[in-house]
Amino acid sequence: MRDDSMNPVSRRGILLGTAALGGLSLAGCGGLLAKTTDIPVGGGKVYAERGIVVTQPTANDFKAFKAKCTHAGCAVSKVENGVIVCPCHGSTFSAVDGSGRNGPATKPLSPSTITVEGADIRVLE
């Protein structure tokens, strides 16, 4: 028979604590990306360090896409006049849904998952 009187932490306590910490780390995944005021209505902003472009086609409607052109993998550089622009070969994509507007890219930008919590835009992937 084992004497656990000298060990105030049980196996069950350790498992429950580990599960709780795992939940906290999952809740913090991705984190804060931007403030809603950073993204102009009708425009967007490229976050090159995160590989994401965030747009706001209409007021309070935020979209996010991978910032990698589907033609040759170059990073998109800006959002202007309702389109996301790739500087390498001139491809442009819709700021609304990431679809191709002008080639040579033939596939849309991949979507990214974000949430808007008050004034914070958080990336989930």
From TrEMBL:
Q: Which domain of life is it from?
A: Bacteria
Please name the taxonomic classification of the source.
Bacteria, Bacillati, Actinomycetota, Actinomycetes, Micromonosporales
Q: What does this protein do?
A: Iron-sulfur subunit of the cytochrome bc1 complex, an essential component of the respiratory electron transport chain required for ATP synthesis. The bc1 complex catalyzes the oxidation of menaquinol and the reduction of cytochrome c in the respiratory chain. The bc1 complex operates through a Q-cycle mechanism that couples electron transfer to generation of the proton gradient that drives ATP synthesis.
Which Pfam families does its entry note? Answer: Rieske
Which keywords does the record carry? Answer: 2Fe-2S, Disulfide bond, Iron, Iron-sulfur, Metal-binding
Q: What is this protein called?
A: Cytochrome bc1 complex Rieske iron-sulfur subunit
Q: What does the entry list under GO cellular component? A: membrane
Domain Rieske, residue spans? 31-123
State the species of origin.
Planosporangium flavigriseum
What is the required cofactor set for this protein?
[2Fe-2S] cluster
Key word Transcription present: no
> What's an example of a GO molecular-function annotation for this chain?
metal ion binding
